[in-house]
Amino acid sequence: DKKVVLITGCSSGIGLSLAVRLASDPKKTYKVYATMRNLTKKERLLDCIKGLHQDTLDILQMDVTDRTSILNARDKIVEKRVDILVCNAGVGLMGPLEVQSMDVMRQILDVNLLGTIQTIQAFLPDMKAQGEGRILVTGSTGGLHGLPFNEVYCASKFAVEGACESLAVLLKHFNIHVSLIECGPVNTDFLINLQKAELGDTSLQNVDPQTLSLYEKFLQHCGSVFQNAAQDTEDIVKVFLDAIQSPSPAFRYFTSGFVPPLTELKLTHPDGLQYISAMSDHIFSDNEQQRP
Ligand code: NAD
């Protein structure tokens, strides 16, 4: 029997690559339900699959912020079960906190946090009844340490960590493994899709000059990090496969292969000040800015 996998956010990026990889598995180990909010964006996925794997891939509409849409997708699963649930859908938000509207902040929390939780909720009773399952969540280093101008995004991803860790403690008793795949920068549409205040936007006109100048430095830093250090989705997919294929998967996987040194500072210096200084130097000091 094939392993039934459901993935959220498959119209681009990590979700798309993972869906393609699993659906093209030479041994046809997986039946993939690739879900996306907007089905008019399915061409990219279909192009990557090239019509070859019709028996291993189905595309379903699912907006993780819409409970009815999640339940409708669940009802369309022919096998009537999901063995591996991948909560991947997510959006970013960048800019000075004082310009973010409540609506935009709610939207980020709706997708990243409540969307993830709501998706898990919908599949949890059946997984518990099956007595086995895997829940994989695309995590972010922004869920492990704070990043300036990313307060709401980081809050959403930190919250996902808390929800998953709490669940993992319980679900151990149901033979359900929860794993977070912690990604640093990845080459995807994430930067295009995220909501970002641009320098010169009218929304920034009342922001103080010091914040704007630090924001400019941050954007430069961010650009160079994505240019020099971003991983490709294939690298991320390998880590997902490790977790999926492991008989006893870890709770956290770091796609870079190690705990980022700045994240480690939080553990070695729990009062938090070392991390704050080091990250501030890393992003804002002119010397550090030259580093890739
Ligand atoms: P991406 O923008 O290409 O993919 C995100 C996908 O989520 C898109 O297909 C988008 O349509 C979908 N999505 C957004 N709102 C949705 C909703 N309401 N319902 C269903 N789908 C929705 O970017 P990506 O990098 O592939 O992002 C995937 C995940 O990886 C996200 O959770 C993101 O936070 C995380 N991540 C990305 C990076 C990075 O640098 N790219 C780093 C760390 C973590």
Automatic annotation (TrEMBL):
Chain segments annotated as transmembrane: none
Protein name: Uncharacterized protein
Entry's Gene Ontology BP terms: estrogen biosynthetic process
Binding site for substrate: S140
Keywords: Lipid metabolism, Oxidoreductase
Family from the record: Belongs to the short-chain dehydrogenases/reductases (SDR) family.
Classification via SUPFAM superfamilies: NAD(P)-binding Rossmann-fold domains
Binding site residues for NADP(+): 9-37, 63, 157
InterPro entries: 17beta_DH, NAD(P)-bd_dom_sf, SDR_fam
Top-level division of the source organism's lineage: Eukaryota
Gene Ontology molecular function, alphabetical: estradiol 17-beta-dehydrogenase [NAD(P)+] activity
A GO CC term assigned to this protein in UniProt: cytosol
Enzyme active site: Y153 (proton acceptor)
